[in-house]
Design a protein that fits this description.
By secondary structure, the chain is an alpha/beta fold. The chain is about 40% helix and about 20% strand.
Length: about 375
């Protein structure tokens, strides 16, 4: 087996971000040790609210460039509500990384695990296994306050623009069809649902038209459409029927929280943000100051984000053994829940961050 190193830019960040990063990377190292000759090397970048308090900067000098030079970026969590800029906004250097590296493809897997809380009484809720693909650079977030693009008319009116570009939307839909195709090869449905509001907005009709254009190149992937309001209903009524949902930024933001709630909570919510050059992997939760330093954080969202990172790196570097490492972790989590060996405090269980991590290491 060839020995090669993959460079990870590591931003542990604030609060539970530090603990869950350490847990996730310990699990990654163990899985790589079992399945491949690949080793990770880390370039730690200091950033976040704690760093801001100490230095007056939200990321270390040269941190953004350094992050872009790695093969992937792994981030724990950033921000603490008590530490803010003078205008009231929180410390968010990761939003700049998203913008600088155009990380358009936001992947949020939503999957039911045995013995984890299920919010729906219908037994088919056990079968929930879908991915929300949220465009992450434009849409209504084009006008997010951080960018200063809102049109403010005296104290009477504010206009935010929802921007859909052909260039990004083509890439997004292509990404969605490729993802659905890969999932089909693994036994999932192989269907990409375009979630929009094409019956009302010209921008959304454009989004759907581009979806149709790209769909012509993917005969093997089933196409499907849903208006976003109906999609919200269907995520409660029949979430087990969906595979990959592709959607505009704001719609994806809302639907992914709803879907995350269906399968437990934030401690299971993994996230990848992928662009043409690099990808950023982080749990979808924040720094959780209410539980930080208490060994209560569920590290599984971070660990599942590592799974996404290894899959991405397998594609990017052509080292297929990384896929085996990803599958090994995935299988260990599944088995751990099935055998009731993973009982996070978050779900009323008796296992904190350290216990979940060490149990997962023995499962590996
Ligand atoms: P942000 O705006 O940065 O996403 P937030 O304040 O909205 O952050 P979180 O920090 O994610 O939200 O916390 C929301 C709630 O979920 C808190 O009660 C927190 O304790 C809980 N929580 C978040 N992540 C985890 C985790 N990994 N394990 C257990 N509980 C968590």
């Amino acid at each position: 087996m060839t020995q090669s190193k993959i460079r990870i830019a590591l931003i542990r960040g604030d609060g539970i971000g530090v603990d869950v990063s350490d847990a996730a990377l310990a699990v990654a190292e163990a899985a790589l040790g079992k399945t491949s000759g690949v080793r990770l090397s880390y370039n730690e970048i200091l950033a976040g609210a704690g760093y801001f308090t100490e230095t007056g900067r939200d990321i270390e000098p040269g941190g953004e460039e350094a992050a872009g030079k790695a093969d992937a970026i792994f981030l724990g969590a950033i921000g603490l509500p008590a530490i803010r800029h003078p205008d009231g906004t929180e410390i968010s250097p990761h939003l700049r990384l998203r913008d600088i590296y155009q990380l358009y493809a936001g992947i949020r897997p939503v999957r039911a695990y045995p013995n984890a809380p299920q919010r729906l009484a219908d037994p088919r809720a056990q079968e929930i296994d879908l991915v929300i693909l949220r465009e992450s650079t434009e849409g209504l977030f084009y006008s997010a306050a951080v960018h200063g693009r809102s049109e403010i008319i005296n104290n009477e009116e504010v206009r935010d623009v929802l921007r859909i570009t052909r260039a990004t939307t083509e890439k997004l839909h292509r990404f969605g069809f490729e993802l659905a195709r890969k999932r089909k090869a693994r036994g999932n449905k192989g269907r990409l649902t375009c979630v929009d509001k094409a019956n009302v907005f010209t921008s959304m009709a454009f989004f759907r038209r581009i979806y149709d254009e790209i769909a012509d190149q993917y005969d093997d992937v089933e196409t499907d459409y849903n208006y976003v309001d109906a999609q919200a209903l269907d995520l409660i009524r029949r979430p087990w029927d969906f595979d990959v949902l592709v959607t505009e930024n704001m719609f994806g933001d809302i639907l992914s929280d709803l879907a995350g709630g269906l399968v437990g909570g934030m401690g299971m919510a993994a996230c990848a943000e992928i662009g043409d050059e690099t990808g950023l992997f982080q749990p979808a939760h924040g720094s959780a100051p209410d539980i930080m330093g208490q060994d209560k954080a569920n590290p599984l969202a971070a660990i599942l984000s590592v799974v996404l990172m290894l899959e991405y790196l397998a594609d990017k570097t052509g080292q297929a053994s990384l896929l085996d490492s990803a599958s090994l972790i995935d299988a260990a989590i599944n088995r751990g829940f099935a055998d009731n060996r993973l009982r996070p405090v978050e779900f009323g269980g008796d296992m904190g961050t350290a216990a979940i991590t060490s149990e997962l290491l023995s499962l590996l």
